[in-house]
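Students often ask why we bother encoding 3D structure as a string. The short answer is that it lets us treat folding as translation between two languages. Here is a chain of 230 residues written in the first language.
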Amino acid sequence: MSACRPVSLRIHPDLDGRVPAPVSMAAIAAEIVVGASPKPLLDLLDRVTRDTGVLYADMRPQDQPAIAATRAAYKALGKDPGRYRPAAEALARRVAQGKGLGPINMIVDINNILSLETGLSIGSYDRASIGDDIVLRAAGAGESYAGIGRGPLNLEGLPVLADESGPFGSPTSDSERSMVTGDCSRVLLVIFDFGSGLLDDAVVARASALLAEHAGARHIAHQWIGRNRA
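And here it is in the second language, the structure alphabet:
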């Protein structure tokens, strides 16, 4: 996948069999130096935030196609999307309510820009903190992790990314274990699509360009998981 340690990603067939539309993911790996977002990236975040606020003046976030598809998948898995909101919906609702988004770091800010632009939930992971064999599956009873900024998160029924040590990410909230900090030198971005069809080459190219331009990313590579299935 990249010059970094290779990673294997797959979608568990049980998950695919339970949700109403085929699931796909795009994974983007890169070497980076994490830091505060440069001014051009902050300006872009402000502009996208304003544009999103205008969009949701006339539409509910949950009606955006990618968000609606994620919510439908949650319902099919028995998870209440109103209580465990997809991250893209939570961002859109925050912007629609006029609360704005404060800068965090260049990787998280790029994530937020992409999510606002597409309605797709995106996870960013420190490659050194996760294993090499990763599967997207439905979490089982009793599974949980410490979610970033939210404490213990009951994962049962959520679609989760899991490695050899268990779940570390989901379209609702990622874990403290895998979060990107200033010590991260290799990042893995995973973009989730639960059947909206909005995850395409243009989205992956956009993500790669933002990483290269604003995060100084090198050795960028991507792979598709579950693409082009009927």
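Translate back mentally: The mean pLDDT is 94. Keep this in mind for the problem set.
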